[in-house]
Each structure stands twice: as C-alpha cells, then as structure tokens.
Amino acid sequence: MKANDCTKVKINPNAVTRDLREFDKETGNIYETVAILSKRANQISTEFKEDFQERVRDFTSHYSYDAFEESLENREQTEFSRYYEQLPKPAILAIHEFENKEIYYKSHEK
Length: 110
Description:
The protein is mainly alpha-helical. It has helices at residues 3-8, 20-27, 30-62, 67-86, 90-99.
C-alpha cells in the first residue's frame, strides 16, 4: 500500500482495542496471525521509506544551494514530513488489510 493509497481509505490512525479471538479465526493460531501482520507491516514500512526517500531525492535535485532556495526547500520538506507523520502506522494498515482479507498468505502446516 503506497502512501497515496492510505489517504484514499478512511483508517483510524489511532490504536484501537481489538478482540484477539477475531484475529485467530482466520489462521487458527494467534501467533501465526501476529507473524503475518508483522511481515506485512514491515513490507508497508519499506514501501513508505522508499517512497519518502524518492520524494526527498526530488527535493534535493531541483534546488541549488543559495540561502533563499534552501529556506524554501526546508519549508517544503517540513510540509512533506508532516504528511508522512499523519499517515496511519504500518501496523495499523496491516491490521486493516487483514480484517478486510486483503493479505494473501500461505500456511506451512505439516
């Protein structure tokens, strides 16, 4: 899920108390569910980081380094950083995807 996709979906960015019994219905094991959510949250975090670094690279490549343009760049970077700070955390996004059955996973049962 890209950062732009997060703004299209209404997700509460705050932590919410959830019923654990709802999480192990799908997998039959709460620990397996936590592992799935953890891996997906790491994937989302990596996607956010790559997107963020790509956009920051765009900021640094467009400007030369005189004082006026540097202050303009800092303001734009601050607004950009605030945007990313307001996004829901990757773990919350992973839980949302899991609840809506948007995560594909394979069970490695013996």
